[in-house]
Amino acid sequence: MERDIERFLRYLAVEKGLSDNYQLSVRRALDHLSEWLENERGVTEPGQVTLDHLTAYLAHRRLDDRVASSSLRVNLIGIKIFFRYLAGKGKVSEDVAEGIDSPKVEKYLPETLNELSVKKLLEASREDSRPLARRDTAILELLYSSGLRVSELVNARLENIYLEDGAIRVTGKGNKTRVVPVGSAALEALNCYLKGERPSLVSRQSGSEIFLSKWGKKLTTTRIWQIVKQRAKLAGIEQNVYPHLLRHSFATHLLGNGADLRVIQELLGHADISTTQIYTHVDQKQLRDVHRKFHPRG
Question: Is 104 a catalytic residue?
Answer without folding.
Answer: no
